Q: What sequence folds into this?
C-alpha cells in the first residue's frame, strides 16, 4: 500500500502535468477578476470532521463527490455515506436562519494573508478556529473538493477557502442522524462547497464565490453549488 508521502508525490506529478496543459490554454482566456479580499466563517456548534466541498467536473467521485482535479486527498478517507433528504427551507434571511439554527454568524473577518507553505509545515498561529485565511499549503496539495470522514490538515483546507469555497465542519460526537442530515444537505450543493441546515443554504447563497481573494473557477467544477442548488 502506498504511503501518504508516495500518494502525495503521485498526485503532485499529476497536478503538475495538468497545470502545464492549463497554462497553454489559459493564455487564450479572459482573466477573471478576483473577488474582493475578505473571508467568511460559519461556526457550527462542535467542530471537527470536515466536508470539503466544491469543484467537481466529471471527476467528482461517488457519494463523497471527491474531485481530484481540484486538489489532493492528502490521504484523508472519504465519507461515502448516503445522506438523508434535506428539510424544506424555513427561513430565507441569513441572519434569521443562523439565529434559528443556533449558529454564530461572523462576517468581515480580517485577512491573515495567503502565503504558500510546504506540505507538512507546522500549523500557523491562525486567529480563528476554524481558520479562514492565512498561510496555507502550496498547489497541488490543497484539499480536493469532497466529503471526508476525517479532519484534513488546516493548512490544506485554507487554500480551498481562498478559492471561494464554503467549508462545513461538525463534531464526530454529533448523533448519526444529524450527521446524515448534514451529508444530505451537502449532497444537494456539493459543487465548490465544504458541509447547518437552512443557515447553510442562506449562507451559501449570499457568500459562495465572493470571498477568499481568488475565483472558484480557478478549479473546474460541475454540479449544484450553494449559489445555485438547482444546477
A:
Amino acid at each position: 500500500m502506498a504511503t501518504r508521502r508516495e500518494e502525495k508525490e503521485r498526485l503532485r506529478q499529476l497536478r503538475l502535468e495538468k497545470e502545464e496543459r492549463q497554462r497553454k490554454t489559459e493564455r487564450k482566456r479572459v482573466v477573471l477578476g478576483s473577488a474582493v479580499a475578505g473571508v467568511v466563517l460559519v461556526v457550527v456548534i462542535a467542530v471537527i470532521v470536515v466536508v470539503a466541498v466544491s469543484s467537481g467536473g466529471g471527476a467528482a467521485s461517488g457519494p463523497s463527490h471527491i474531485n481530484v482535479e481540484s486538489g489532493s486527498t492528502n490521504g484523508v478517507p472519504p465519507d461515502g455515506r448516503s445522506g438523508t433528504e434535506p428539510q424544506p427551507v424555513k427561513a430565507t434571511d441569513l441572519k434569521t436562519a443562523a439565529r434559528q439554527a443556533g449558529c454564530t454568524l461572523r462576517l468581515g473577518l480580517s485577512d491573515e494573508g495567503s502565503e504558500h507553505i510546504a506540505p507538512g509545515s507546522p500549523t500557523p498561529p491562525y486567529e480563528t478556529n476554524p481558520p479562514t485565511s492565512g498561510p496555507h499549503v502550496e498547489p497541488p496539495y490543497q484539499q480536493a473538493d469532497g466529503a471526508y470522514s476525517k479532519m484534513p490538515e488546516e493548512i490544506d483546507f485554507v487554500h480551498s477557502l481562498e478559492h471561494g469555497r464554503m467549508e462545513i465542519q461538525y463534531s464526530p460526537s454529533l448523533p448519526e442522524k444529524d450527521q446524515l442530515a448534514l451529508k444530505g444537505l451537502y449532497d444537494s450543493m456539493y459543487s465548490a462547497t465544504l458541509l447547518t441546515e437552512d443557515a447553510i443554504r442562506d449562507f451559501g447563497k449570499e457568500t459562495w464565490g465572493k470571498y477568499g481573494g481568488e475565483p472558484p473557477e480557478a478549479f473546474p467544477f460541475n454540479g449544484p453549488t450553494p449559489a445555485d442548488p438547482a444546477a
Notes: Confidence is low (pLDDT under 50) at residues 24-59.
